[in-house]
Amino acid sequence: MRRTASLPPDPTALRLARDAVDAFRDSLSEVRWRDARIAVSELVANAVRHVEHREGDTLDLALELDDHSLRVELADGGPGFDRAPTSRGDEHGGWGLYIVDLVARDWGVDREPRTRVWFVLDVADGDGAGAAQQA
């Protein structure tokens, strides 16, 4: 199953991205559904906050579910960044990619043709993996 959405590069994109994840709720466990919502929220929040958007820009979200995993990609017009080891944020922020790293099997950044930040979640619950289980 595949779903795509063009989101405005503003805070309303967070709700729209979570709504897109909700289309997969019946195919995911409660834990994985929550993990996907948390992780997509972090990617969208980073794109809204850290990318200089021009008139007409969109954030392009793609979600693809197969029997084993859910892959989520968010494309934006920013220059991208190098994936560095994730570290815990502080009281002022910086937790987003740390959270994505905790809940996802893998994640990364591709820069061509647009910057795409992506993550993959296993469909089956793992051994204690997932922020919702750790909370």
Query: How many alpha or pi helices?
Result: 4
The outline comes out as globular
Number of strands: 5
Q: Helix/strand/pairing class, anyone?
A: alpha+beta
Query: Reading side by side through the largest sheet, how are the strands ordered?
Result: 1-2-3-5-4
Which sheet architecture does the biggest sheet show? 5 strands, antiparallel
Low-confidence stretches: 127-135
Rg estimate, integer Å: 14 Å
Compressed to H and E, one letter per element, the order equals: EHHEEHEEH
Helix content: 25-40%
- Average of pLDDT: 84
Protein architecture, described:
- This protein is an alpha+beta fold and 135 residues long.
- 33% of the residues lie in helices and 25% in strands.
- It is built from four helices and five strands, in the order E-H-H-E-E-H-E-E-H.
- The protein has helices at residues 12-22, 30-50, 96-103, 131-134, and strands spanning 2-7, 59-65, 69-76, 106-110, 115-122.
- A five-stranded antiparallel β-sheet has the order 1-2-3-5-4, covered by helices on one side.
- Mean pLDDT is 84; it is low at 127-135.
